[in-house]
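Case study.
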Amino acid sequence: MLHLSIFLFFGAICAAGAVNLLVQRHPINSALSLIAVMVSLAVEYLLLGAEFVAAVQVIIYAGAIMVLFVFVIMLLNAGVEERIEGSRVAMILGIPGMLVGSALVAWVLLERSGTSSVAVGSLPGYPKEIAGLLFHDFLLPFEVTSVLVLIAIMGAVVLASHPDSETQQKKES
Amino acid sequence: MNSPTLDGAILTLVTFIPLAGALLLIVAPRRDREIRWFALGVSLLGFFASLHLPVHFARAQAGFQYELNVPWIPTPNIHYHMGIDGISMWLVVLTTFLTPLCVLISWKSIHDRVKEFFILLLILETALIGVFVSLDLFLFYFFWEATLIPMALLIGIYGHERRVYAAVKFFLYTMVASVFMLAAILWLYAKTGTFDFVAIQTAIRGGQVAGFAGAGAWLFLGFFVAFAVKVPLFPVHTWLPDAHVEAPTAGSVLLAGVLLKMGTYGMLRFNLGLFPEQSRTNAKWIMVLAIIGIIYGALVAMVQPNLKKLIAYSSISHLGFVVLGIFSFTQAGLDGATFVMLAHGVSTGALFMLAGILYERRHTYDIASFGGIATPMPVYATFFLFITLASVGLPLLNGFVGEFLVLSGAFQARAVYGALGATGVIWSACYLLWMYQRVFFGKVTHDVNLSLPDLNGREQIALWPTAVAALIMGVAPLLWLNAIDPAVQTALAPFVQLASKVVGQ
Amino acid sequence: MTPSTLQTLPQGIEYVRILPEIVLSAFGIVIMLLDPLVDQRRSSRMLGTIALIGSLAAIAASQYQTQCPPGTAFWDMVRVDAFSIFFHIVVTTVTAVVILTSFEYMDVQQLHAGEYYALVLFGAVGMCLMSSAVELVLIFIALEISSISTYILAGYRRRVAISSESSVKYFLLGSFATAFFLYGVALMFGATGSTSIAKIGETLNAGPVPLLAYVAIALMFVGLGFKVAAAPFHIWTPDVYEGAPAPIVGFMSTAPKAAVFAVLLRVLFEAHAPGRLWLIWVVAALSMTLGNIGALVQDNIKRLLAYSSIAHAGYLLVAFAALPSSGIPAAMFYTAAYAAMNVGCFAVISHFASAGERRVTLEDYAGLGRRSPILAATLTLFLLSLIGIPITGGFFAKFYVFSAALQADLVGLTVIGVLNSAVGAYYYLRVIVMMYMREPREETPVAPIPFGLGAALAISGFATLYLGLLPGRVLEYARSAAALLR
Amino acid sequence: MVPLSYYLALSGFLFACGVTGFLIKRNIITIFMSIELMLNGVNLSFVAFAAQWHALSGQVFVFFVMVVAAAEAAVGLAIIIAVFRTRETLNVDRVNLLKL
Amino acid sequence: MYALISLVKIVIALVLLLTAVAYSVWLERKVVGHIQNRWGPTRVGPFGLLQPLADGAKFLFKEDLTPPYVYKPLYIAAPMISVIFALTSIAVIPIGNSITVGGIRTPLQIADVNIGLLIVLGITSMGVYGIALAGWSSNSKYSLLGSLRASAQMVSYEIALGLSLIGVLIMSGSFSLREIVDAQGGTFWGFIPRWNIFQGQFVAFFIYLMAAFAETNRIPFDLPEAETELVAGYHTEYSAMKFAMFFMAEYANMITVACLASLLFLGGWHGPLFGPAWLQELLPIAWFALRIFGFLFLYIWIRGTLPRFRYDQLMSFGWKFLFPLAIANLVITALIVALKA
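After joint prediction, the assembly is written out as follows.
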């Protein structure tokens, strides 16, 4: 019972955060509601026993990725979203259509797929066991992500550095 | 008979001599004079090589000769399969015969990008010959498509004012249509596992092709549409006048002389060869279309103010005869159709050359701007008259034999077709002679025309062979027909069986 | 699942099975390290040469893989067999050609070379890995590697607004698609309890297919469809192609597509994905039609080729709808032919467009046949191949695809495809017509062809002709590879 | 005890919200956040399915997704900054040099 | 029963923490005063010991100004976010071994979880939002610049910080703070304690120290609130209790960082035990407190002596020196552990 109520509580926060993200017009508010979603998702992970995942979710998603978002919003001083004719149409058609449709499909499918219910911490993901998988069975993907991260770093540097700095360098040399 | 090795290689040789020449030209330096001579040499070499074919052809023998069949691509099972029978042999010779003339006629009229012009011309020749000698459906389609680009480029680059429009129209019409043929070929391959013409023919006749009963009509149509556009048959003919008017002279000559024959040859070889039953069921409306083509082409030709357009429409009319003959399913009809193909190739080719000569001098095709040309250009007028008469179908000239045979075949098939077709002959006499009268007789209406120079030596060299050929074909048609006959008989064999079946019931 | 013991390490042969990836990454890292050390003025040439050597070494590595027995590596993460090697070679060769094309481009555009070449190589790592991966999560990561590097490369001309815009559009829609793919992976994991393609195949074959698996396949297909620009997920293509640097468009319209098609083949055929036929049927028909119709009205050659690539994705998908025995080799052949001709097209464009990518409208191509006969002739060859004219690879590609479809009795789809290829002829022809039959408005001289570009054109032209004249060997190889897949 | 389908429905809902956001939002950053929301939804189903199948690998996948999301965020935000530099706006409707 | 104990522990921990915060302010003023040859607070109470109370009262009774043009919801929320995250991280930090009170043995820790270290990291990494939002919502250029600097700095140094901890994790093989401390029990050759800092993690400790200074925005890395350039950085527009919250958060963070340093590198609560049983129960807490005191003293000492970095120096120090160093440390540690095993 406790399990269910915790689930429902944080699930509600999650859902509310997700909807708030759509409704808010200022990007910073959207970002904050997304953070709320992520943190409450971490709690849901805890309920499922994935405590390591939960911690990493907070550290990486809420603590690093969203910080970047907030940082960029601040840096660019992004203002309130403008509403242009086209967007209103998308709004009217988009929200109800997508939400109702997807939720319905998801619900029906999942009800029919005959899944069982899970208890709290039914599959404890201890760091050691996860490490075992990560460094053995999933060694190759793990190694390959290093290339991904390298690309990302390089890309961020290339794209975000000021274009004029490059030509200056060329002139200097 | 020559050595078997030469017999095996001769078709390949004939086909690829021009291509080899073209490849050499690509790397050659840009010296226009030498290039012209080289192109002439190559095309003549091709012509003489092709003469080997009729000389050593076993005339009484049916079936394919000079066959060469080597695997080319293992999957799909494509063979480099070449061979000719009496019909295709003459078309090959026609092609190699016309190409040197084209080179000659373009000697002066092409002065810009000469190298590219002759490269394209020689590539086109290879592709045209390839179409006639391929016995592998794939190889056939390959060459068929390969004719498109050089022709379109010839029209588009070297043509007249509206050349781009004409080139695109030509390309799209034939491209779209041949795609249907590709689909049909693919279907056949999917069901039989081979592209070999003979093998597929045997399979179809033996009833070994699954689903053929249902698909047969569609396959027939697939092939037929591609060929009909090429011919061109009546409702899909509209690309032809544009292409002809805009094309350079050499382009028109090959277009009318050979390219259109690809369509009729295809009907004869593939529609009749592979789908005899479907041909029979569809013959009625095809013949109607052919007759419409004959009459419509003639009528439109009559009112054309443009010399080249007039000749173009006359081609539509003449090719109608060929289709009519083919779908009459009679010995005479098919013989005649084949003969008309050859005769039309010679005489219309010559007509286009003549028109081109005039254009070189006056830069217009407008009939109204001529008149009384016979006075300043007597030799030219003589040649023109001779060829016009050949085209009209004067007895003892080449046009007559074919048209006569076709009409007799059509009468055998159904009298009314023959009768309607016969009006075409009259119409053609009308428009051609009227045109001749307007251009050559009477007073010189425009002063510029007074100073027009007559034919020079090069032009005469280009025209004489056509005139001679027209005469010989008219006097001694048997030289040709005795090779055509056995081939036609083979082509008609299933129809005889069909007919006897019908009678037996 | 209990974690296996940490004591076992991968065998030597398993490293050979990721050898091309290792080589490419090693060279990418070398370039990155050298970049700050070399003189800026000569860096483009030198780093480019290193990148070229790297890609050639990767081709050699893929060749070397053929000498080794096929098999899996890293605990069933990748499988190297004829199938993967085929795509390895396609991807690495395209990479080499793109690098050759870029030599001049980097000089003309004054772009910083270090990251550029490194990103191209790293992107190729992702694509190679995608074609050999047999595990959905690894596929996902490899997909992201290739996508992210192309996002960056698309926006590489930072000073130009349309380049950044192209990058942002590509990025947003690409990530959107990735999310769909990932959701598909998640649901597939939920439906079968595994993300290994082989195991998924076993599970789906063994019992009744759960409804979830259908949804999963559909979602994965949506995600991958975005990446190959299949309709109705194609809207990003023209914009992105227009804005991105031309050599990169050549890269991203061929290599990642080849890799994604490899993934699609594996997922759809090896995993015995349920209910794939009608889905592919519709998508293929739509892509062909929308692509060709869209291309008809374009005046910018990059946009035109973008629509054409949509159409070609459609043709390729026709092969997916066919029987595996003929469909897979046909698709593989098509991928190779398409890569050859498209990368060649963009090599020409990147040279002709010159600094600032100014000359990209059809009008600009008027009279190219006179101004630069070689450039015009090669572009004509590639365009003819795209039309599907005989003696070019494009012809046999279409040929195999349509005959495969006919063997599966997909007459309707074949007819749509055949009609479409006839429509397609028109707009390619417009370019050829422009080049040969129109006079230019102004006689701007075309720069002479530098060595690198010449080599790139020679390679792609040779490949196009080779596939058009002697397709047998390649097809046989594809056939044997396809036999392994089933 | 919570039925697994509750988790999955929540995950589906988050994903759907992300899709909706992608379609209706006009600010590039917000659109990007919608994509992150979609990924979060996917992660929840991974963890839930891991519990269903008792396969820890489901949790491992989440790490990979997070790494990818982080890489995407780095690159994506850099691209957004680059666009902002040239166009001075973050509205997708105004980022329209290319006709769609 | 469990809930009750937890509640008691939470209350005690909070009281302890807030007191510690208050008196670390006092300590700072006192020590810096002495370093600068002054007295520091002396008026309120003996040695100025009641100064923190006076400060607190003053904060409470000041007028709470809200400048116009601020983005109000976030302006109000930002200090709360800061202080809440600063205070919650104490939840998983053990301040000593188990203790028996009234027959119940309970660990000296609010929640004993086996990923404690990760939770601390997660919570501290959330702290940046408070600062970022404060600067942004104030709608003032000083605030914005300060918060941009602060968030960039915190994000950058978090990486070095995290990497420096991994060496420790390799040594102990656990994320549980309690187990990490337990692994440091005992001595080498009878006199050198087996603290991680003596087990080859000296470099890691150095990195941690530097990163911790930066994370808490302390001199020499206090660029975000550099008075001479930015007035007061992200909290320029804040006053009264809202300002006090930032203030509290900063010192609470210092204490958290000190706790972590003690737990991870300095052997936690280990130390010589002697005396009667009740003393032996309480001595670990004392040892732990001593370490924290020492750490705080170091903080203040450095503040009193070192000048401020320039911003580009700060960034290049973080990325070009600390970060590679941390990776090198990580690799070497891993190699040594692998070779030993």
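Observations recorded in class. The mean pLDDT of chain C is 86. Chain C has one domain: 12-485. We will return to this complex in the next lecture.
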